[in-house]
């Protein structure tokens, strides 16, 4: 029976090219947007190079200080000393990395200026992340203890700074902000959307201008806690929070007196969304309203339009419905037939959308809009797209099917 319904759906498609074009255009366009959007969200939040262990990592991005009445607030990254004392000393994590976010710097090749983003890190940064070293190796604890002026650079910076790309950059000198460093390694760069790992040049935290000697609570540093496995993540959160809770209150840091100290350690998605929602109830309402509006525009409006198109298309088949009902076809059978037809059409639109999405993602990756972009249609993205196809087919098919299947035999034959 299912095969017969699919054959009927195919013949209906060929019978009305105009309706077919409108239906497939609406479905494929909507699903293409959803697939590309899903792929971007996977790129933004998934465990990808060089943060392939996000699923078992916790991120400490900011410290929030408040007074007892919660009328004053101070927030931002922490000092290297604070994270060393309260995060680096944790027992449960496999490793803990402390680093800064990237900051801007300049390098010059002759009279040409190269705008750079630089980052200061500890040696564990290279163990917590999964950078691919194209040349050389990372700096280690011994290098940092010796105070060596070394740097790890990306392949993109190498192309901009050195003339002969065939020669290894390891051991060569680079000058950044009038300071000289020896290149110790070259890595494949991280996309700019991964702010915990993105930079053009990486320095040991003991390099000049790192401000790692600051003794207060606040500073320029953040941390990544890497668990041995996913099951240890809640244990690490509890252990870290226990240490934060033992800090004597009230306290004073950089002239700001506070009674409440919040230092969340969160998975990447929670950390990212928490930064948005921390803006208060108004920003939280705006954020969720925007998401609801986008979903309605992407899924709701096309579904409503397709319902109207399907009603018109099915109305032309009223006489067919009347004849089938006259021969005893129950409402359930008619509804099931129209749903199968609509889902079949939706999957054809989904196949077209899959091809379009693949082309668009290739263009985005090659365009350079996002440095080192690696958008893909992977298994999770594809499964989400298939689910959307099913939901879309049901949304745009159930209502017309119910409406038309309830026509009386006389009404159907008159149409």
Automatic annotation (TrEMBL):
PANTHER family to which the protein is assigned, alphabetical: ABC-TYPE MACROLIDE FAMILY EXPORT SYSTEM PERMEASE COMPONENT 2, MEMBRANE COMPONENT OF TRANSPORTER-RELATED
Entry superkingdom: Bacteria
Membrane topology qualifier: Multi-pass membrane protein
Protein name in the entry: ABC transport system permease protein
Organism: Spirosoma utsteinense
Occurrences of domain MacB-like periplasmic core (ranges): 20-233
Domain ABC3 transporter permease C-terminal: 293-408
Chief location category: membrane
Localization per record: Cell membrane
Pfam family, one: MacB_PCD
Keywords from the UniProt entry: Cell membrane, Membrane, Transmembrane, Transmembrane helix
Membrane-spanning segments: 18-41, 285-307, 343-364, 376-399
């Amino acid at each position: 029976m299912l095969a017969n319904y699919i054959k009927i759906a195919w013949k209906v498609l060929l019978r009305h090219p105009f309706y077919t074009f409108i239906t497939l255009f609406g479905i494929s366009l909507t699903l293409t947007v959803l697939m590309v959007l899903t792929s971007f969200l996977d790129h933004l939040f998934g465990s990808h190079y060089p943060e392939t262990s996000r699923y078992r990592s916790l991120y400490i991005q900011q410290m929030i200080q408040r007074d007892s009445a919660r009328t004053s607030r101070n927030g931002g990254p922490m000092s290297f000393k604070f994270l060393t004392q309260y995060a680096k000393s944790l027992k449960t994590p496999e490793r803990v990395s402390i680093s800064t976010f990237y900051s801007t710097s300049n390098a010059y090749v002759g009279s040409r200026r190269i705008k750079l983003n630089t980052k200061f890190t500890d040696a564990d940064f290279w163990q917590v992340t999964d950078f691919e070293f194209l040349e050389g190796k990372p700096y280690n604890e011994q290098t940092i203890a010796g105070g060596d002026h070394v740097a790890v650079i990306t392949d993109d910076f190498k192309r901009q700074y050195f003339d002969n790309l065939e020669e290894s950059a390891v051991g060569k000198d680079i000058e950044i902000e009038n300071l000289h460093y020896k290149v110790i390694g070259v890595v494949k760069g991280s996309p700019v959307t991964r702010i915990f790992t993105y930079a053009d040049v990486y320095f040991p935290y003991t390099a000049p201008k790192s401000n790692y000697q600051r003794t207060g609570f606040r500073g320029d540093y953040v941390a990544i806690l890497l668990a041995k496995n996913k099951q240890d993540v809640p244990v690490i959160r509890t252990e870290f929070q226990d240490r934060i809770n033992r800090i004597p209150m009230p306290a004073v840091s950089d002239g700001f007196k506070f009674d409440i100290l919040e230092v969340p350690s969160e998975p990447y998605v929670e950390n990212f969304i928490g930064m948005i929602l921390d803006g208060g109830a108004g920003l939280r309402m705006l954020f969720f309203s925007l998401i609801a509006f986008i979903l309605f525009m992407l899924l709701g409006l096309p579904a409503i339009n397709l319902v109207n198109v399907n009603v018109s298309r099915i109305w032309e088949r009223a006489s067919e419905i009347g004849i089938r009902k006259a021969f005893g076809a129950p409402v359930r059978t008619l509804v099931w037939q129209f749903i199968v037809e609509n889902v079949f059409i939706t999957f054809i639109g989904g196949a077209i959308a899959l091809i379009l999405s693949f082309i668009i993602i290739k263009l985005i990756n090659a365009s350079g809009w996002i440095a080192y972009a690696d958008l893909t249609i992977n298994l999770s993205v594809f499964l989400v797209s298939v689910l959307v196809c099913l939901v879309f087919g049901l949304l745009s098919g159930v209502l017309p099917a119910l409406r038309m299947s309830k026509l009386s035999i006389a009404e159907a034959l008159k149409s």
